[in-house]
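Inverse folding, one chain.
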């Protein structure tokens, strides 16, 4: 059985040193910054930029994440799977 979006987000959070959440929710700016650092995305996280900027940077670094779509909404399930695989080194 495939993982739910909530399970994938928590797997990614744990993979970048953040905490799991009990309820399903999107990534915080801090979690997105941690993902950017983990995938070597070109973002200056000293001053955390907007979520859309970080989502675009992650999209540019991770194969399977659509960089051409509007980055104001969260990642889709297939994109979360690609990010999780990237963090696992697959």
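Residues assigned per position:
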């Amino acid at each position: 059985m495939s993982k739910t979006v909530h399970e994938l987000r928590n797997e990614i959070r744990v993979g970048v040193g953040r905490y799991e959440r009990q309820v399903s929710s999107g990534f915080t700016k801090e979690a997105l910054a941690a993902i950017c650092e983990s995938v070597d995305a070109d973002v200056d996280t000293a001053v955390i930029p907007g979520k859309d900027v970080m989502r675009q940077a992650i999209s540019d670094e991770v194969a399977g994440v659509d960089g051409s779509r509007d980055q104001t909404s969260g990642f889709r399930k297939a994109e979360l799977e690609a990010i999780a695989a990237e963090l696992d080194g697959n």
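The chain has a mean pLDDT of 92. The chain is about 50% helix and 0% strand.
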